[in-house]
Amino acid sequence: MRVGVDLVKVCKALNCETKLRIVDLIFRKGSKSITDVRNGLNLSFSTTHKYLNQLEEANILSSNEVTENNRKKKIYRLNGFFLELNPGKISEIVKKEYITKREDRLKYHVTDILGR
C-alpha cells in the first residue's frame, strides 16, 4: 500500500502545468532558489513557495539552506523518481485503498459497538 500512497502524493503534487514547469526548470538548469524559480517562470512569491513546498512534501524535490552574502536561502534540487502509471496500477491502488478504508470503518464500527 505504501507505493499507492506515494503515487497518489506524487500525482497530487504534479496536478498542474505550473508544477510540471518547476520540475522541468530544475531538471534542465539544476538546483534553484525560490527566487530563481519565481523569476525563471514569472510566478508570484506565494505561488512559488506553495508549489515548492508541495513538491518537497511529495519527495519530488529536496532542499537545503545555504548562506550567500550573509543571507540564508533555501536551494531546491530534484530527487530521482520514477513514476509508473497505467490503468492496471490505478486499479491495484484503488482496490488496496478501498479494502483498507473498509477495514478501518469496520474496526471503528466494532469498537464503537463494544465501547473499546
The CATH superfamily of the largest domain is identified as Winged helix-like DNA-binding domain superfamily/Winged helix DNA-binding domain
Task: Write down the Rg.
Answer: 19 Å
Order of strands, main sheet, comes to 1-3-2
CATH topology grouping of the largest domain: Arc Repressor Mutant, subunit A
| DSSP E strands, number | 3
Q: How would the global form be characterised?
A: elongated
Write down the secondary-structure element order: HHEHHEEH
Q: What is the C-level CATH assignment of the largest domain?
A: Mainly Alpha
Give me the secondary-structure category. Answer: alpha+beta
Q: Helix tally?
A: 5
The major sheet is characterized as: 3 strands, antiparallel
General description of the model:
α3 packs across α4 (45-57). The two termini are 27 Å apart. A hairpin with a 2-residue loop joins β2 and β3 (71-78). Strands 1-3-2 form a three-stranded antiparallel sheet. By secondary structure, it is of the alpha+beta class. The chain is 64% helix and 16% strand. Mean pLDDT is 81; it is low at 107-116. It folds into two domains: 2-83, Arc Repressor Mutant, subunit A, CATH 1.10.10.10; 86-116.
Quick recap:
By secondary structure, the protein is of the alpha+beta class.
Please render the helix and strand layout as text:
Blueprint: H1 2-13, H2 17-29, E1 32-33, H3 34-41, H4 45-57, E2 61-68, E3 71-78, H5 87-114
Antiparallel strand pairs: 1-3, 2-3
Helix pairs in contact: 3-4
